[in-house]
Design goal:
38% helix; two-stranded antiparallel sheet; Large ribosomal subunit protein bL28; 3 helices; alpha+beta; Ribosomal Protein L24e, Chain: T; single chain; ribosomal protein; structural constituent of ribosome; 28% strand
């Protein structure tokens, strides 16, 4: 399983540990990933995704999974998230046609 957020695409970064004597050694900064069950309002389903804690805060700020996915770029999303986004788009398009 990759160490990459399924919604934001955040992955490991590389930097240095710097000692008191200023010796630099390579290290990896891993993102804080956690499994989360996210509710889609339009689909009425719950999806389990492995996302970063920052992405979870962003979901709360934006107003939910559906709004976040519709505004997200496809390059950042995982294949699972892209499938969910396609379902949400299709449901929104069907609702717009039914209303018109």
């Amino acid at each position: 399983m990759s160490r990459r957020c399924e919604l934001t695409g955040v992955g490991p970064m590389i930097g240095h540990n710097v000692s008191h004597s200023n010796i630099k050694t390579k290290r990896r900064f891993l993102p804080a990933l956690s499994p989360a069950s996210l509710q889609s309002d339009s689909l009425g389903q719950t999806f389990k995704l492995r996302i970063s804690n920052a992405a979870l805060r962003t979901l709360d700020f934006k107003g939910g999974l559906d709004v976040f996915l519709l505004g997200a770029k496809d390059e950042q999303l995982s294949p699972r998230a892209l499938k969910i986004k396609a379902q949400v788009k299709a449901k929104a398009k069907a609702a717009a046609q039914a209303a018109a």
